[in-house]
Amino acid sequence: MRKYQQRVAVEEGLSDVSQYLTNQGVEVVSMTEQNSCTCSVITGADKNVMGMQDTTSDMSVINANGMTPEEVYQAVQARMNL
Hints:
Elements: E1 6-10, H1 15-23, E2 26-29, E3 39-42, E4 60-63, H2 69-80
Parallel strand pairs: 1-2, 1-3, 3-4
InterPro entries: UPF0180
Pfam families: UPF0180
């Protein structure tokens, strides 16, 4: 059983990013499980992913639009080390 140190919510449609993050030892969950995550990764296509009007959160959001999976991983690492 793999023990994850980081938990990141990744928007549906970013399977290459999800796979890369998983391979780097990051626990990837769906956006519906984002409450227990330190950051989330979105496609940038829809800013209101969860369909909520009031989206106050301390969680970092990474817009993966135009980024490679490696760049997303680096952004996740930067957020985790703040």
